[in-house]
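A note from the maintainers: we've had questions about how concatenated examples are separated. There is no special marker in the raw files; a new sequence line simply starts the next protein. For clarity in this README we add a label.
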Amino acid sequence: MRLYDSLKTSSNNLTHSKMRTFLTMLGIVIGISSVILLMSIGASAEKLIIGQVQGVGSNLVFVIPGASKGSRFSAPASSQGIIIKTLTGSDVDALQRDPAIVNAAPEVRGQAKAVFGNNDTNITYIGVTENFFATRNFVVEKGQNFNDSDVNSFNRVAVIGPEIAKTLFGDFNPVGKSFRLNDISFKVSGILEQKGVGAFGVDQDNIILVPISIAQKQMLGIDYYNAISVQVSDSYASEYTKSRVFSIMRASHRITDPNKDDFTIRTQEDILSLLGSITSILTIFLTSIACISLVVGGIGIMNIMLVSVIERTREIGLRKAVGATNSDILQQFLWESVLLTFFGGFIGILFGAFLVGVVYLVLVNIIKTDWVFALPAQAIISAVVVSTFTGVLFGLYPARQAAKKNPIDALRYE
């Protein structure tokens, strides 16, 4: 039987029972659209996270107190709540002298209640120096940031995030007004440009930046840093600078054995690699779950095709009686399965793309997130390949059952 005749006969048989054909395809439609949606969510999440990490600043190396044991992605002790006092001003001075380093910006962090009038909120405040703003890509939209003179003079000024500005000051212009933070009065010198949620879920619009001198001496009572952000010169590769930072920190801390480091170095590439691995594993996991519905849809096709074989037993006998071969019968039923899954896959792709658009609009316009639209080509290609393969796999058994029927017994079948 010619291919055209097989396809025409198969399509006629499918359109003869439209409702059954639709219900049979439904499992494939749901499965394919689920695969499209979940692969898109994984790709969107990866793009969003990468954008957030890159938005922290360009070409950065982070120095964190405490050694990380085990793999290169192991968390340093300081991130587990252990107080480590190994990062000091001498480390910043040593780093700043290296020609490969543009800025070395130390920081300390704390939690406090911010109060203005009858409004108050618990926030994270960060003690920083002037070069922190350029290093970490924080832009002041209104007013101005404080400078090294403010830091050295212990001036009680603050730059606040836009969300803090709304929460504390409402419709008032915060610039020039004073509020209390940890029972210390601060004057607002500027408001940060909106940045959204940053790497690791940090809300960059809900923070307060104060001079590091005030934060250390008057608010926290410490003389060490919680982290140092190192901005690498564009003339040097970050991996080279990372090795230089290791050398400088070991010299500053008089460490000769690398196994005894009391600090951890992370680059943006390290963070992106870790987050990329996590999102990839999550995407594979979610897609695997979605594929279960494809298996269920395939089993549904197999059941319907087996019922179709039984219903058309006399037709099979008649075709064989007039010269149809086992191969002709096999092709006819196999093509019916492939057409079912192919068109089901096509509808599933359209429906999946529609769901991706709906999710994007909801997350951006209603929930107000920085979600990124992504419809990866590999998701569509995978959907077409998988749906066709499903049709062949689950249609082969019913097709073989039809092809093996004895024409005499088939003609006698009632």
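[label: protein 2]
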Amino acid sequence: MRPFRFTAVTSLDQLGPPGPQTSFIAGGTTVVDLMKLEVMTPDELVAIDQLPLRGIREDAGGLRLGALETMSAVAAHPAVAGGYQVISESLLQSASAQLRNMATIGGNLLQRTRCSYFRDVHSACNKRVPGSGCPAITGENRMLAILGTSASCIATNPSDLAVALVVLDAQLRLRGTGGGVRTVPLRDFYLEPGDRPDRENVLQPGELITEVLVPRPAAGTKTGYVKVRDRASYEFALTSAAVVLNMDGDRVRKAEVAVGGVGTKPWLLPQVGAALNGRALDRTNLEAAASLAANGAKRYPDNGFKVELIQRTVVRAFSRLGGLV
């Protein structure tokens, strides 16, 4: 780890324009790792963990999550576990208990990819050093993306929580160092790599996520999260599916699904939901709808299996909510 200046702030008013090599740190579960690897080499590290950005509350509009709340606190909160199960389930299947006790909601949404080439400073990586190349395309890519990829990058977004929040159409409250505030739908927050994989989201220099706003699901809505991985804990997704299901008798009134482990960002699948809406929730209709889940996918040497696996994951997630398994 290289030398750096350390500053702690306790008020948003103390945040000034950041220098070009300034980084923020809250729980530190990602930042410290990347600094040890020298993937991140900030000149200054600004600790924001004492800022007044906590709180978990529900009002008539839905759920409000402070960006500095820990993953474990949000997962265990009665309002979340009772009415937004997909959030609780995605968090409880993330990382380890020790990390969930430290890691924050905002930090989780901003965590960097686990692509091994990105984390190895001796390898080329367009995300880390623009223009240096993407050896993952022809190299080790079993864990990497098949949706939203480009000739410059196939790195997967690693956040389970982001997949759950995307399917719920959550919004992020952002605050700049000048005090300006804006609200951005999470579905628009992450960027596909294109030819600029170093730009992962729409945050401007010095902007912070201050709050996550989650609309209240309609009455009778069920939500859930299914994650497929190589081991049962402390592992990133091969595939995952966050689903929303609202039934009208034996027919689907509304179905939505977002998937993880397969996209360069949390990937919403509106075509799958549209194929289920108005139909009976049975195995035949589920499999027909899920067959659309990998539309547009690009297979790479080691991860072509994800095409079938994401289809099966979507079927499993809806089957679980619909009582078919």
